[in-house]
Amino acid sequence: MIAVLCFDVDAEAAVLAADERHEANAMAISHQRFGPEVGVPRILALLAEYDLPATFFVPGETALRHPGAVERILADGHEIGHHTHRHRSALGHGPNEERRDFELALEALQRYGVSPKGHRAAMWEASWLTPSLIAEHGLTYDSSLMDRDSPYILELGDGAEIAEVPPHWSLDDWEQYAFLPDPPIGSIINSPPQVAAMWKHELDSMRRHGATFVLTCHPFLSGRAGRIEALREVIEHALDSGDVEFKSAATVAEATLADPTSERLKLRPSVDPS
Amino acid sequence: MIAVLCFDVDAEAAVLAADERHEANAMAISHQRFGPEVGVPRILALLAEYDLPATFFVPGETALRHPGAVERILADGHEIGHHTHRHRSALGHGPNEERRDFELALEALQRYGVSPKGHRAAMWEASWLTPSLIAEHGLTYDSSLMDRDSPYILELGDGAEIAEVPPHWSLDDWEQYAFLPDPPIGSIINSPPQVAAMWKHELDSMRRHGATFVLTCHPFLSGRAGRIEALREVIEHALDSGDVEFKSAATVAEATLADPTSERLKLRPSVDPS
Amino acid sequence: MIAVLCFDVDAEAAVLAADERHEANAMAISHQRFGPEVGVPRILALLAEYDLPATFFVPGETALRHPGAVERILADGHEIGHHTHRHRSALGHGPNEERRDFELALEALQRYGVSPKGHRAAMWEASWLTPSLIAEHGLTYDSSLMDRDSPYILELGDGAEIAEVPPHWSLDDWEQYAFLPDPPIGSIINSPPQVAAMWKHELDSMRRHGATFVLTCHPFLSGRAGRIEALREVIEHALDSGDVEFKSAATVAEATLADPTSERLKLRPSVDPS
Amino acid sequence: MIAVLCFDVDAEAAVLAADERHEANAMAISHQRFGPEVGVPRILALLAEYDLPATFFVPGETALRHPGAVERILADGHEIGHHTHRHRSALGHGPNEERRDFELALEALQRYGVSPKGHRAAMWEASWLTPSLIAEHGLTYDSSLMDRDSPYILELGDGAEIAEVPPHWSLDDWEQYAFLPDPPIGSIINSPPQVAAMWKHELDSMRRHGATFVLTCHPFLSGRAGRIEALREVIEHALDSGDVEFKSAATVAEATLADPTSERLKLRPSVDPS
Question: D34–C147: do the CB atoms touch at under 8 Å?
């Protein structure tokens, strides 16, 4: 069984994408900065302790604001993935703006010598253009779509193809822990031991169904002490089970693309069936 | 004691009914497609493993978009029920539109040779016209009203009558698992083992009160690994109790209509008492 | 220690107060009718089984719509309290309308020979006029204010006084179980055993602090099988503790008014302190 | 390990800051008054029982409305901190209004002879001006920012510096217990034993990460019997662990400022990185 640990280092971008007026909210900005400044080092220490690889999806703006976090992630040998520039949904701003944002993110990462292999849409809200942008810019996988719970090959229709490494809301710390009144990023704070229990159940269930465990955590959330210890509990549970291999999303994507038995899906925008 | 397992195969219709602009949201569409493409086969396998009948309520649009899912359900011998065409509430669009949608759904199902015996309103939001549409089109039961927790006969006032197989929000996976920010279909992700515990408690309590356990799950939700294993836990609990019979909604409705001791209620639109 | 079981028989009024257009929603109306038609008889049976008194707060409109429920409650010897006529907040419609609604509720109850001793505001949203209306119409207590967790005497400033039997959101089934999308009466469905655990903890804690356990349940919610069994668990826990006496709200109010050691508070509308 | 118990005595101000029309809501006002009138004495008794120091952040308006509560807190030797005058966010009203509110709060506390050492923003929503107001008025610490989970020194850029004692949403009773429909201060009521379990887990986890446990409770919430007993459980867990010292926020701030090894951060408003 394969497990992929993803850390989306949204930082300030997650609140500023909602509205730039949140720059005036010193508490909200400090709340988000906790991610790259405290959460990332703690997460890196946890990964080092168990010698696990991971994938950090870093918005371009976050990379520019927090060079130290990017450098630490790279120094520890982890993958950095493309996570848009401004952490805005791909929807609602049009294809030109999506392309421009995609390329700004690439430029930001390239300042650190990073040529990302994969992309994850902000809030996973990909458009039907997103896969083409990924392929066109030489990336090899996406991690935003949810029509499977195992990796597959996504055929883009023009001969191009990318891998999809599917995430899901149920394996995301945001729904369990995020809380801010303004912007209203979340309204519930769940107990870390209960979250750990849910994710361990999910891991065991996914094994039974041949699925791939793709967990998404955010350093501004799961870098908090109680949550990082819940994450440790999940990791130890996986390791104790004896058959779980932790891999980066890029490694999983590469293996998927190379495997002739991989499931293949065609990119199919939704259409009115009537 | 009788248990009815219902699976509402909403798929894309559940988000497109809110607003067709969600067609542009590749993630949301993929999230919904998981239901017919992965969830339905898993649910069918689970039912086969325990040799249980079930009722699949399939919107007309879903049937047209996902012929494979419909055919698998039929091949396994399960009931397919009417679940509107577009998965829109019966309220807010007027009686002509409700009738038109009702008939489009019948046409869609008839392409697969299905003449549904029962109807369930989208989001259970039936109008006072809905029961008449059901009777007029030769269906024999509804599963949307909540004034009882056991099946009864609903007298429509013109001599016609249908059976009602009452669902309830507390026996629905949507309130426990659904999460999407846009459209905002839900905002909480509960832990599957906690949901299983709640439903097992409900089953045991309903036995004590002579009620019928009518569970509603959605393949895009309960087809996920952790949730399908929670559903298995509920099924095993029911089977272990020794006195629970699983039946399709149509079978329950037929028995209700044939039973002279069934409770009979008149269709009574609400009126101002003053 | 004293425990007061209150049942607010809101029925249709709880959704029609939000907007009369919900009359068109057959499911929502049926959902609310479950309260007086199924929930009330089950609750009466539960109370009879343990020989406990209780107080049923019944809106005037509900009394008119559901004579059978009112008669059953009276036949079992329970108290019926005033719960407004239309189940609308006392706020937002002005003092004339509040007075008119108060009197309509009295008229409705008087059709059953009921002269209520106490009043509870809809959603507990009392105005500063509400206590005067209560006193002026010869009722002796209110159960809407939350500045204490034990009964007290409320002095109205003109020599009049009533008792207050304080409820609280944490001892209400609505926040735990209510769910309807439209009107949005609630968005969470908690597990009955977890609710029972919370209320048992509250009972034990209130004993330690000399408080009075005033529990509010709604037949359309707690009349459901899983919830009524949770309520039974709370009742049995209280009885097992050996020192809990169940009393009606009127009995508690009467004792409070008669007790010279009762705490006395003056009615004090809020004022700007600056 | 250090633990700081903070009690934010918001009382009526928490609802009136949303809209002064809530003055008309007798229930909501009574709900808030429970804090200073019942919650504060219970919390003081709990602290006395374990001989623990604590910090009470009291809005100026609350101090003027509830002199008895202020006097009791002072009589028991606890710290009183500045918590704005009207309990409004520092955002949205401009710097002149923030300064004016800050000074009104000082005046209100000074009527009781209190010269507060520290400040906490209402809802923790500090502006970038807030730290300067704190330093300018001779206070020595803030407790609103969340970029660390241990105290640090905040350099204001003009040579001035204050201590920051970081709070966090996960260690706040508001998110777990607050419920009012109007104003909508919260929509979930969690079970006190579950909250105690979460906070005990957080305490143990924070020890592992060298963090400082800064708990925030509100007397109108945690003064309720079930919640105060949950708080007792957390306190006893901390005491049982043998290495936890309870300190007031002012004591922690003073030690932070005096410690040459304290972390030092510069006040850095957020800027567009591009």
Answer: yes
